[in-house]
Design a protein that fits this description.
Blueprint lengths: L2 E3 L18 E6 L9 H15 L2 E8 L6 H7 L8 E6 L2 E3 L3 H22 L4 E4 L2 H7 L3 H4 L2 E6 L3 H11 L8 H17 L2 E4 L2 H11 L6 E3 L7 H4 L9 E4 L8 H7 L7 E4 L7 H11 L6 E5 L6 H6 L3 E4 L5 H6 L3 H8 L3 E5 L2 H4 L9 E3 L4 H13 L1 H14 L5 H13 L7
Parallel strand pairs: 2-3, 2-6, 3-4, 6-7, 7-8, 8-9, 10-11, 10-13, 11-12, 13-14, 14-15
Antiparallel strand pairs: 1-5
Helix pairs in contact: 1-18, 4-7, 6-7, 10-16
């Protein structure tokens, strides 16, 4: 076995002359590859970049797993560099791709760097999504005077208990592990200065489970950069598009089955090269006899997704009825489709109904029902007036879900001492 440390740790502590004093200084540590194929990295990149644009100095701390420059990393997401956004790639040890070593080496190095930051700079807030880091940092608030803003997209201990149902290859979690995560999560939820929940349903669940006051939780869905679509024009739209990951719990299989009853074509944008979900979906298309109607692009950098959305008539979000989709999801592709002028057909689930009103700014169908999905798509394909009305209404509604609007709320939270609800 061989171990590799990604870059010299001294690089962490090299300092450059920074721009003028910002309104706030925020540290955002997150244990992910960056850039990454998954939607959470897209959300993080856009949130941090927009916070920087609004005068917040952001230290984004991520794993160092690439030799790409910060400018190249941001370009992956279609973003430009900003003087207020400082990306620090934290050194990790790769020991024969052992996840335990990766994770522990990240936590050790990131906490060392955080302590250095706290001793050398005035940090106003830690913006967190990691329970482990939050548990360590919260007790340090009284010493260093910072606040903790914790963003959650799930109830972790519940998801841990049900993860094997969403990912069949995953072994069921032990009761001891679930209890341990619940204890940590309760501490973080109750002791953080303010919480961000991705959906109203998730906020309600947090209040019920952890007895957190309503005033300490803000609901901020995901967002979209509408400027991307102003510079692109696609008049001859054709067919359907699916954008996103291809895990079974995302529901792409339902869309493949529905193509038997749809007289149109489908472009599937997504799939991670080192996972087999794309190949499994291809086999499913072959088995149901629709492979000739479907184009599989594989993984596409996020900065190129807009072209696929704007080339299609309909964007399908075929989520199944499970706890993740029902309560915790705020799909990027939903807002991006609305911004791209692509009519949305989505599963009729509570999380989706927080954004989509059936036959107003989108069309809803019965989850996991390929026949009803096909019926809904065909109606939209054959009713141009309905499709136009939906697209026009969506273009108005999506303006409240931009990254700018989202980060304006975050800045207000910072200005109000992380206590005021918005």
């Amino acid at each position: 076995m061989s171990a590799t440390v990604f870059f010299n740790i001294k690089e962490l502590f090299l300092t450059k002359k920074e721009p003028i004093k910002p309104n706030f200084t925020v540290v955002y540590p997150i244990n992910i590859r960056f850039p990454m194929e998954r939607a959470n990295s897209v959300q993080i990149a856009h949130t941090c970049r927009e916070l920087a644009q609004q005068g917040v100095r952001v230290y984004l701390l991520v794993r160092r797993t690439t030799s790409m420059s910060n400018e190249q990393i941001l370009a992956h997401y279609g973003l430009d560099a900003h003087k207020n956004l400082i990306i620090k790639r934290i050194p990790v040890i790769n020991w024969s791709n052992h996840a335990f070593v990766w994770n522990k080496s990240f936590y050790a190095a990131v906490l060392l760097y955080i302590l250095w930051l706290l001793c050398t700079k005035k940090i106003d807030c830690f913006f967190l999504r990691d329970l482990g880091i939050a548990k360590i940092l919260i007790p340090l608030r009284k010493i260093f005077g910072f606040k903790v803003l914790y963003e959650t997209h799930i109830v972790s201990y519940i998801m841990t208990g049900q993860q094997h149902e969403l990912f069949p290859d995953t072994a069921p979690a032990t009761d001891a592990l679930i209890r341990k995560i619940e204890s940590t999560e309760r501490f973080v939820m109750t002791m953080s200065d303010h919480l961000i929940a991705i959906t109203d349903r998730l906020k309600t669940r947090i209040i019920q489970l952890f007895d957190v006051p309503d005033s300490r939780i803000s609901v901020l869905p995901d967002g979209v950069d509408l400027s991307v679509y102003k510079t692109k024009k696609h008049i001859n739209r054709e067919g359907l598009v699916y954008v996103g990951q291809l895990y079974p719990w995302k529901g792409a299989g339902t869309l493949i089955d529905a193509m038997q009853y749809i007289e149109s074509t489908l472009t599937v944008v997504g799939g991670i090269p080192f996972e087999d979900d794309l190949e499994q979906l291809r086999k499913r298309a072959e088995n149901v006899g629709v492979i000739d109607k479907i184009r599989f692009t594989g993984f596409v950098p996020h900065g190129q997704v807009a072209d696929y959305l704007m080339s299609a008539q309909i964007s399908v979000i075929p989520l199944p009825d499970n706890i993740m989709a029902r309560e915790y999801t705020s799909p990027l592709k939903l807002f991006e489709s609305m911004g791209a002028g692509t009519a949305v057909v989505a599963s009729d689930l509570p999380s989706i109904r927080e954004i989509i009103t059936d036959r107003k700014n989108g069309m809803l169908f019965t989850p996991e029902d390929p026949v009803d999905l096909a019926r809904t798509v065909n109606e939209l394909l054959n009713n141009r007036e309905l499709a136009k009305n939906i697209v026009d209404r969506a273009a108005i509604d999506v303006k409240q879900y931009t990254w700018q609007k989202r980060t304006e709320h975050i800045v207000k939270i910072l200005k109000n001492g992380l206590r005021q609800h918005f």
